[in-house]
From TrEMBL:
Residues 42-59 have a biased composition (Basic and acidic residues). It comes from the Bacteria. This is SPOR domain-containing protein. Residues 40-59 are annotated as: Disordered.
Amino acid sequence: MRDQWWFCLKHMAVEPDEGCPNKDRMGPYGTREAAADAMKTAAERNEAWREADRAWDDD
């Protein structure tokens, strides 16, 4: 089995498979570095989604 890494939202830290419950983390990621960038990746994806659908911010 290949290594999987997670980003724990509770501790704001990278974890291996053995860690906090999945409800508290993002992933899995294929590398420790990708898991460390989880918040940045999520922000970039959210921004791209907002750009694609400007109606999101309209009330």
